[in-house]
Amino acid sequence: RSKAEGRNTYRFFEAKMGEETRERRLIEHELRQAMSRGELKLVYQPQVQIDSGEIIGFEALMRWHNRLRGDVPPSIFIPIAEESGLIIQLGDWALLEACREAASWEEPLTVAVNISGVQLHSQGFAQKIHDVLLKTGLPPHRLELEITETALIKDMNRALGTLRQVKSLGVRVAMDDFGTGYSSLSNIRAFPFDVIKIDRSFIKSVDKNAQAAAIVRAVLGLGRGLGLPVLAEGIETSDELKFLIDEFCTAGQGFHLGEPASIEHFDHIVHANSHVGEKKAAAS
Ligand code: C2E
Ligand code: MG
Ligand code: MG
Ligand code: MG
């Protein structure tokens, strides 16, 4: 391979990197104005108890529809928001919006909100949670914060302190995407989690794939041993669900059980009894 060729390859990569950096800056620029332009919204995905099929709560997921780019997926804009620090504003907005929404739901439906490591490690995080609960009137036990292991590792001691503060408010904490990233079994013991969410990469074809099945069984055993419920993410087929029923998995989430949608789509579920209540009130 000639020197010139090497140089050209280098230039190619340099140009490509420049392009990517520019693209990220453009997205960041648009994202900065997304909130004030009303381009952000939350959708909600049902979380279901496996044995009864009952909906126990919803995970709030952020959606961004940009005027120039159309729908931008979270896998693109969340990392950019994290690197630029914008995730603090976006996260504050999502937390307030989700809690305000969930405060109107039937007891005991919960709302799960994803929390990035940047948020968790930011100054006054626990106080912020406290303020949002006070402001919205959402009972603390109906809020669940979803945190990945990767969010903990930056400063384990600080993360532990913050999680303990949050837990003392009565809020629930979920370990999200379990089994990916820098998984360590000691994390599950050291941190005060209320539920383990198995990453969807292990649920995919779990009914057909012996390795995935072995890993899922192991995590279910871990949950049982530690007295922690386990929620399976990304259930897409009835066969995957059947496997999880047979293995006594606690809860599940996935396209097969319900796709993320605007909350209006779930009105009849989240306000079921209040309609009865209204009718009763009207009749009396
Ligand atoms: P996550 O927290 O693990 O959320 C679950 C993701 O799996 C969601 O992707 C959801 O739409 C998707 N999903 C649910 N069921 C299925 C299924 O059966 N099959 C497949 N293939 N996917 C399924 P989404 O909404 O694109 O979000 C991706 C990630 O972006 C989330 O992963 C979360 O880490 C992050 N994210 C989303 N909203 C927020 C937010 O408000 N704040 C923060 N910090 N992160 C968020
Ligand atoms: Mg999540
Ligand atoms: Mg997450
Ligand atoms: Mg997840």
From TrEMBL:
Residues 24-274 form the EAL domain. This is Bifunctional diguanylate cyclase/phosphodiesterase. It comes from Phyllobacterium phragmitis. The chain holds residues 513 to 796 of 796 of the full protein.
